[in-house]
Design a protein that fits this description.
By secondary structure, the protein is mainly alpha-helical. The protein has 2 domains: about 190 residues; about 100 residues, no CATH class. Helices cover about 65% and strands about 0% of the residues. The protein is built from 14 helices and 2 strands. A two-stranded antiparallel ribbon has the order 1-2. Strand 1 and strand 2 form a beta hairpin. Helix 5 runs antiparallel to helix 6, helix 9 runs antiparallel to helix 10 and helix 10 packs across helix 12.
Length: about 300
């Protein structure tokens, strides 16, 4: 069966997720903080799995200490220590992908689902366990999510981080690093990054250009793109607005675009200029050309 975005959205809408309370049953904020202080050590595998599943509900929490400091950090710690089995990872893969398309009125659940999903994707890169169909679905969900982000809030006092573009870029980074994704699939990642380099009317202030550049740099490092291909892609990313670049100095939206494009290009250039990898060096002529073109 061919996987399409409408099909994925239909499946997500037809199977609403049951949500438990956060913190999970049997836990409270103080107990979870003590667990964090112990480096998330849970010796019993079944108890660890149950808690991990319960903490996925906390990705929608308005409390940054629970959402970011506990739920995300616990999942990252356990996944990087290979302490969650394949069945748990596969269940999380399906649930987190569904959460990327679920209603998210507060704006926390989707970005943090993408961030935990980046850690799940990393495990498949380190030691492959997903099927080809699962990887394809993950790529589709990841690119659809990043391309759909319209909530550009980064850090908000009292609420913590949302950071949808940056968290989505972290997910794309893990896919870009995975050799199971061929050039045609990397092309889809690059196309998605391009849509968020300079969204209309948005001047990034929370490090988004740098995070968006990371998957691009690691794609370049794989050596699959020629200098001419990078020239063409960078020209598309840095295309001047209607009226040319000189017109932006009397236009707030144009100035925001200039800010974002230059931040993205400069971030890439700073890292590419230090690299000895031929694939990354192939980007340098196009980067220099576009930096000269954007005043």
């Amino acid at each position: 069966m061919r996987i399409t975005l409408p099909l994925l959205l239909a499946l997500a809408l037809s199977a609403p997720l049951a949500r438990a309370d956060c913190p999970p049953a049997g836990w409270d904020a103080a107990k979870l903080q003590a667990l964090k202080d112990s480096k998330f050590v849970v010796s019993d595998a079944s108890k660890r799995t149950k808690l991990a599943n319960g903490l996925l509900d906390c990705l929608a929490s308005p409390d940054p200490a629970l959402r970011d400091g506990i739920a995300f950090e616990a999942w990252s710690t356990w996944l990087r220590a290979d302490q969650l089995d394949e069945a748990t990872r596969r269940a999380a893969l399906q649930r987190l992908q569904s959460q990327l398309t679920a209603e998210d009125p507060a704006g926390f659940e989707q970005p943090f689902s993408a961030l935990v999903l980046s850690e799940v994707a990393r495990t498949d890169r380190i030691a492959p366990w997903m099927t080809a169909e699962e990887r394809e679905a993950l790529l589709l969900h990841a690119t659809a999510y990043v391309g759909s982000v319209r909530d550009y809030r980064g850090f908000t006092a009292g609420e913590g981080w949302r950071h949808g573009v940056a968290h989505g870029a972290d997910l794309l980074l893990q896919l870009a690093l995975n050799p199971a994704y061929d050039k045609s699939r990397l092309e889809r990642i690059l196309d998605t990054v391009a849509t968020q380099v300079s969204p209309e009317g948005q001047a990034y202030v929370s490090g988004e250009p740098e995070r968006l550049g990371r998957p691009v740099l690691f794609i370049a490092a794989r050596g699959l793109y020629s200098e001419a291909e990078w020239n063409a892609w960078l020209a598309k990313v840095a295309a001047a607005p209607e009226g040319g670049w000189e017109s932006v100095f009397n236009d707030a939206g144009g100035l925001a675009r200039r800010h974002d494009v230059r931040a993205f290009l400069l971030g890439l250039y700073a890292q590419a200029a230090e690299s000895k990898q031929p694939g990354v060096q192939a980007m340098l002529p196009g980067l220099r050309s576009q930096l000269d073109a954007v005043p």
